[in-house]
Structure formats: structure tokens, C-alpha cells
From TrEMBL:
A Pfam cross-reference name: Sugar_tr
GO CC term, one of those recorded: plasma membrane
Protein name (record): Major facilitator superfamily (MFS) profile domain-containing protein
Cellular compartment(s): Cell membrane
Domain Major facilitator superfamily (MFS) profile intervals: 27-471
InterPro entries: MFS_dom, MFS_sugar_transport-like, MFS_trans_sf, MFS_Trehalose_Transporter, Sugar/inositol_transpt, Sugar_transporter_CS
Length: 482
């Protein structure tokens, strides 16, 4: 029963009332963009090493302390992912206790502390490690809390658009950090990066808390106030329907969770289901497969070492300008993906994305092979190929595995499956970012890029044979297809 005494069936009968009473959408977009400022700050964390490591290595300008070696560079870039792995594990629990809004505001503390340690490191590599790790803790929390907040504040008709803000704002952060890094000194670069979390606080503090969280805590009056802010002009009848609908969903979820907890054999039953290749295990295997090829596509390495790659490629334009182009096309790729994903489908975008990535790595392997043997090559090729590769990554392999994995997994498995999948993603990111510079030293660019081309080709085959299409399908239709 809902709070107003409606039965579940009566609430569902009144749901069309919400669709018949459209309200202005700008408050929901504003709240989504405000939360996205924290995601954009994570783009700064991810992109910082692309411009900072050439300085720390002494390639760009001599800093007043000894340059770092390849092993230290790999740790500076990759330790963020270890922090993110640790940060994402408790995020669902903490956000459920503190609230989505308060938790996101709290994540600013380790983020700013990390930037301060980096700014005042003065060549102390261990201090940079600690600073990057703290930034990673915030990064991990953001990957769970921002999508959760955006999903709970929007109407159904806006869920796709506002849900796409996560990847879009991350790409925008990368683009901005590339522009800033190319036009400032090492120290000023780090100072500017540290100010964006404060801009997030100044705007997000005025945004409402998630109505789902407030209702789950029995704070109905606050939930009504939040919904009135998000749905400007909503009628009292429609407001009551939405409150009861959210309450009904939460009660159903709580009941399902309680029944599972009461079962002493739940863990054993879950393991047996996985062995028996049921719907949940199939969905998790598909999600893990998509995340595997997303991370092993090599984009994380390119993102963290962009300037180094263009510097070593001896491109026809400056490495800094080429890196800015990478960031710009990444943003454009995100925008195109948001427009196409519900029109032509997930599988098509994943396959085209993997194909262009594989083809691009093949071209880059041939380019570096020719340079290695002293043959004349088109020095504009890296500038043309790498940005296009990154744009096509943002078109399919970048955003789709994140939300499609949640489409595939049954609702009762999401509370434990989502942290597992996100943690797995961060583990792979750490491996790729940590080992990439060592692979370059051991194998060289040609064979490293050829390996990445083969991995992306395998990803195409996996998508074609295993991943189903979920476009325009209800949740029940997706489960039936599995």
C-alpha cells in the first residue's frame, strides 16, 4: 500500500496522470548538469597525467628536481585506478546512509586534498602517489553516486538524456584539461584542476536530494519539496501519485531483499544459479565481457599518456594541439552516441566502434613500424587516426557497456552485481594503465598497437555472437531473450 492508502494496482492505474501533466524539464537538466560537474572534475583527474608526465620526465621543460623514470610514471598514472577500486566498493552503502547529495559533497574532501598534495609535492614522487590515490577514491565514489542520483531525480521520458550526462561531462572534463594543460605551466595546471570541485560545491549545494532516498528514510515532506523543485508546476494529485509510486517501488525492493536475507541458503543458491547458466549469470557474463573489451581496447592508456604518444610519433603538429583535438572529438562522439543509441541500437554502435578502433590501431602499428625502420611516412597520420579512434570509442564502447549492463541484469541482482562489475572495470583499468608504458618499452609501439587491434577485433566477434540488442525492449522482453 502507498502512503495515501492506494493499492499497488491503483497506483499503477494513476501513473498515466504523470505523463499527461508535463512540467518544465530545465530543473532536472540543471540538477543533472550540476552533478555532472563532479564527473567533469574526474575528467581532470584522468587527463592530468597526459600533460603532467612529460613535465615530470623532463621532456617538455626542466623542473627543479630529478625527472621520474618509466616505472614511477606508470604508478603516477595507474594509482588513481586503485583508489577508484577501493572507493567504489562501499559507495552504494554509504550513499544509502548519508544520501546521494551529501555523499557527493563529501567526495570533494579527498579530491581537493589529493590535488593539494600534488600541487605542493615539489618532486616528492611518494606524495604525488598519495595525492593521486585520494583523487582516485573520489573517482570511484563518483562512478556509483552520480549515475544513481541522476537516475532517481528524472522522469522516465528524460532518463536516457540525463543519464548520458555522465559520459558527456567526463569527456568534457578531458577536453578542458587538454586545453588548459597545453597553455599553462605544470604548477598552474594543477592549481586550476583543484578549483573545479569547489565550483561543483557552489552549484550542487542548491540542488535537491534524491526523492527516492528521502522517501526511503520516511522524510515524505522533504521528498515532496524535492519533487516540487524538480517538476515545477506539478499538480498536487500528480505529486501524490509520484510519491506513492516511489514508495511502492521501494517497498517491493525492500520486501525482495528481506526474503533473500532470510534464506540461509541464499549464497549457495546464487552460486548454483551461476553454475547452471541462468538468466543472471548470462547477463553478468555479457556485462563482464563488454567491460573487458571496453577496458582492453587501450583507450585508458591513450587517455593517460596522450601527449607522450604524440611526442614519440613526431607528428606534424604539436603534441599539445593534437591532444586537444582528441578531447574535442571525444565530446562530439558522446553527443552523437546520445542521439543514435535509441535509434539504431546498441549492437550496431558497439560493432562499428570496435571496427574503427581495430582499424585505427592497425594503421598506427604500421606507422610506427615504418618510422622504426626509417622510412618516410605521413606525419599527419597519428593526428588523423587517434582522435577519430577516440571519437568512435565514445560513440559505442565508451558509454554503452555502462548502461547496457544494467539493462541486462535482473533487478534483484543489481545491488550486488553493480559493485562487482564496476570493481572489475577498475581492476582492468589499473592493469592497462600500469602495464602500458612497460609494454611500450618491451614490445615497442608497433607490436603493442597490433595487439590492441587484435583485442578490438575479438571484441567485435564477442558482440556479434553474445551481446543481444536491447533497443525498444521492455525489461521483461530482455529477460525473456536471455
Amino acid at each position: 500500500m502507498g502512503k495515501a492508502g492506494y493499492s499497488a494496482d491503483e497506483i499503477l492505474e494513476k501513473v498515466p496522470l504523470l505523463r499527461r501533466t508535463p512540467t518544465p524539464t530545465w530543473p532536472q537538466h540543471l540538477a543533472g548538469i550540476s552533478a555532472g560537474l563532479m564527473t567533469m572534475s574526474m575528467g581532470f583527474v584522468a587527463g592530468w597525467s597526459a600533460f603532467a608526465t612529460p613535465y615530470l620526465r623532463g621532456k617538455v621543460a626542466q623542473l627543479p628536481y630529478a625527472p621520474v623514470d618509466t616505472s614511477q610514471v606508470s604508478w603516477i598514472a595507474s594509482i588513481v585506478t586503485l583508489g577508484a577500486l577501493l572507493g567504489c566498493i562501499p559507495s552504494g552503502f554509504v550513499a544509502g546512509k548519508l544520501g546521494r547529495k551529501l555523499y557527493l559533497l563529501c567526495l570533494v574532501v579527498p579530491l581537493v586534498a589529493g590535488w593539494l598534495l600534488i600541487m605542493f609535492s615539489e618532486g616528492r614522487v611518494q606524495q604525488i602517489y598519495v595525492g593521486r590515490f585520494l583523487c582516485g577514491l573520489a573517482f570511484g565514489g563518483v562512478t556509483v553516486a552520480v549515475p544513481l542520483y541522476n537516475n532517481e531525480i528524472v522522469e522516465d521520458r528524460l532518463r536516457g538524456k540525463i543519464g548520458s550526462y555522465f559520459d558527456l561531462m567526463l569527456s568534457l572534463g578531458l577536453f578542458l584539461v587538454y586545453v588548459i594543460g597545453a597553455n599553462t605551466s605544470y604548477y598552474l595546471f594543477s592549481v586550476i584542476c583543484s578549483t573545479f570541485p569547489l565550483a561543483f560545491v557552489c552549484l550542487f549545494v542548491w540542488m535537491p536530494e534524491s526523492p527516492y532516498f528521502l522517501i526511503s528514510k520516511g522524510r515524505i515532506d522533504e521528498a515532496k519539496k524535492a519533487i516540487r523543485w524538480l517538476r515545477r508546476g506539478i499538480s498536487e494529485e500528480a505529486l501524490e501519485v509520484e510519491i506513492n509510486l516511489i514508495n511502492c517501488i521501494l517497498q517491493q525492493s525492500s520486501s525482495s531483499h528481506t526474503n533473500r536475507v532470510k534464506s540461509l541458503d541464499y549464497a549457495k543458491q546464487s552460486f548454483n544459479k551461476l553454475k547452471n547458466w541462468n538468466i543472471t549469470s548470462k547477463a553478468i557474463v555479457m556485462a563482464i565481457g563488454m567491460m573487458t573489451f571496453q577496458r582492453l581496447s587501450g583507450v585508458s592508456a591513450i587517455m593517460y599518456y596522450t601527449v607522450d604518444i604524440f611526442h614519440d610519433a613526431n607528428t606534424s603538429i604539436s603534441p599539445e594541439s593534437a591532444t586537444i583535438l582528441v578531447g574535442l572529438l571525444g565530446v562530439i562522439g558522446c553527443l552523437i552516441s546520445a542521439f543514435l543509441v535509441d535509434r539504431i541500437g546498441r549492437r550496431v554502435l558497439l560493432i562499428y566502434s570496435g571496427f574503427i578502433m581495430s582499424l585505427g590501431y592497425t594503421f598506427m602499428a604500421a606507422y610506427f613500424m615504418a618510422v622504426h625502420y626509417g622510412q618516410a611516412m605521413y606525419y599527419w597520420m597519428p593526428v588523423a587516426v587517434i582522435p577519430v579512434m577516440l571519437a568512435f570509442f565514445r560513440l559505442g564502447l565508451g558509454p554503452i557497456p555502462w548502461f547496457m549492463s544494467m539493462e541486462l541484469i535482473p533487478p534483484d541482482a543489481k545491488p550486488w552485481a553493480q559493485p562487482f562489475i564496476v570493481s572489475y572495470n577498475w581492476i582492468l583499468t589499473f592493469v592497462v594503465v600500469k602495464e602500458y608504458p612497460l609494454l611500450i618499452e618491451d614490445l615497442g609501439y608497433p607490436y603493442t598497437f597490433l595487439l590492441l587491434a587484435l583485442i578490438n577485433a575479438a571484441g567485435i566477434l564477442f558482440t556479434y555472437l553474445v551481446v543481444p540488442e536491447t533497443r525498444n525492449k521492455s525489461h521483461q522482453e530482455i529477460q525473456d531473450a536471455l
